Records
---
Amino acid sequence: MRVIELNGSETITTIHQLLSQCIKPGEDTPSDEVLLYVPRGTEALEDNRVNLALLRRWSDNLSLRLALVIEHRDTRGLAREAGLLVVHSVDQARQSSLRYLDRRRRRHE
């Protein structure tokens, strides 16, 4: 699993580029599990339904299993509404399989 920690100043375009870098052509086993840590104050995603929906679409198009750790409470809810997998902590994501957590989330939808 690849962990990407945002510092809060990234634009949505920068986040897209970071996700795109997770897929490297020619790799035998590209990491399809990505954990995105979103700190409070990340303007590109905080309280932004449109950018969260874009994030979901991009991760689907890149065939990434994306999970987010989001500090801002309201943004966590918006991310879930957009269909993104939200976990409580980096440790939780590392201890569990994102594939398992995503399957469980989809069953509840």
---
Amino acid sequence: MRTIRTERLRLVPVTVRNAGQLWALMQQPDLRTYQDLPKAGLKAFGEMVAARPRRLVPGVNGRFEWIVRMAGSRDALGWISLRIAEREAGAGEIGYSILREHRRRGVATEAVRALLAEAFEVAKLSRVQAFCVPENLASLRLLDRLNFHSDGVMPHGATVGGRPVDVLIHRLERSRWLQSGKTIEMPASAYPA
């Protein structure tokens, strides 16, 4: 995986070396309002990260995560993820969490837009899904801004705070992404030499 750069952000791949930083972010209590994050200890989380694929290429399956930072800073604002499952060729699922003090500044939109470009242009996925609880209005607005469309409801599709909750399914096809003009222009420095 590579570091993804946008105008304001740097998305740093999660590896064994920085897994502890992501684990610490996941311990923030306000991030559990709309999602159920893993309760694994630091050592177990590091082992999970070590078992993940290291390169995002067409046809690979697994979970990929990036820590979101402002360009030029080492402080984490949150993280984004892309999960590609074996059972659905060409499909992926995105996730994102931004710490409360960095919300409402367009950080999540910019990070997710960059992740979508990575999913469609690097991994060559044909579609990406996002799952969201109905109460998470900010996330629903983000998905709408990025041209996702509603794909139904999954009753009791997740567990949040120890209780089952319904989940709204959203979907974005590669063709719709390309037609929407929501792709991002990546500076030449973003690509490996």
